[in-house]
Amino acid sequence: MKTWRSASLVATTAAVLALTTACGQDQGDGSPKGQKVGNEAPVDKGADPGDGYGGGDGYGNDSGNGYGADSGKGAADGKGPGKGAARPGTAKSAGQLDVWDSEKLGEVVTDSAGFTLYRFDKDTARPPASNCEGACEKAWPVVPAKGAKAPPGVDASLLGEVTRPDGSKQLTLDGWPMYRYAKDTGPGDAKGQGVGGTWFAAAPDGKKARPGAAGGGGAARPADPAGLSTRQDPELGEIVVDRDGMTVYRFTKDSAWPMKSACTGACLKKWPVVEPVAKNDTRDILKKGFVTFDRPDGLKQQTIDCWPLYTFAGDKKPGDTNGQGVGGTWFAAGPDGKAVRASR
């Protein structure tokens, strides 16, 4: 009997420790120190993750002129716009932008010649700023703002410009500076995808291109098929959305440790819980502390970093954020589970 009790105590202690490790015992509204938002797109094989620029010399240049062999081949998935256009130039106008549907990447923005446009994780969208200068620009030629026109079906207000240190104007898409990749040698190439873990093909809304993304037009475009993913909101930055594209919220009166919801009864009519989502059915969401909360009322609720998640009955369509700031306690959820309280 003593042995059985000892074994039971050990098992119970292990379970509590596991939950403690997953959720942390942080106070207030933040994540435990050292946590990072995971599930970024993988780095392509052979890419040098060193300084985030990629390539053998740290910027993606090859041993020739830095633009790769003009093979006219090497498309991301063997499909896309027709071949034969000239390789990207350092300051060539993008002209009439277009969107093509890649089997591997989803919808990708291209220039008028069919060359893939990219965004850089070390840049910022709010405010727009480029952190690719000097040798970096040889590997990643900037896209001039002049002459660029929005792709058909994409909100023209998403296009903008940022002034570079040399005074030139660079095209932005939803605030993100746009580039071409010197090693893309033909329309439909996307050799820059994942380079250094920081360079990604651009989707029509300025986010990173990925399979399953559909439609254009920015914040109100249909959601990715994942149970939980993120979108770039013009005012709030990166926020969590559910499978239908509806904004996901946090309630600051809740707690993560112990895991507890202060929204009960009638509150749940306005703020329905987010039902459990499998970890492999998410994109760009923090996985640590991604657990199901068994509520006292019998409902099962999804959490991020152990913070309970909700949607808002007052949001009527994808892209709505009518619940933001309600009562000074309800805020859109960030991919790390934190409440997004102000513009980013």
Automatic annotation (TrEMBL):
Keywords: Lipoprotein, Signal
GO biological-process terms attached to the record: alkane catabolic process
Chain positions covered by the region annotation Disordered: 23-95, 207-231, 321-344
Compositional bias segments (type: Gly residues): 49-83
Residues of the signal peptide: 1-24
Superkingdom of the source species: Bacteria
InterPro entries recorded: Lipoprotein_repeat (IPR005297), SCO0930-like (IPR047910)
NCBIfam families, sorted: SCO0930_lipo
Designated name of the protein: Lipoprotein
Organism annotation: Streptomyces longispororuber
